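Review this:
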Amino acid sequence: IYQLLCLQIKKSVWEAFKIFRDRLPERDEYQLWVTRCQDGSIAIRDIGRTFSQSDEHLTHLNSFYHLISSFCVLLLSISIDYKTHNPTRKSCSPSLQERTSKENISNFNIQ
């Protein structure tokens, strides 16, 4: 049972890095988190909570949010002529551009 528990901890730490930090861990970093879980000083859910509130994760989310926002603004600025199926570019309203550039991922409460 202990080996199964160790395997699950290792998988959970690995996945937490991939999900919350969008990268694979360094060897020492990985071993630190695994050891902390194995000795009971933290639980798996604590890793998720810690990672989700880290600057690295929030920066990654912020970048992703701005990429999606820019893509949405681009999509909203394209009009399709339904008779010819040709796309045409239309000007985007200033209020939409201002809103998407001013919004920030920090407005979201990650728990």
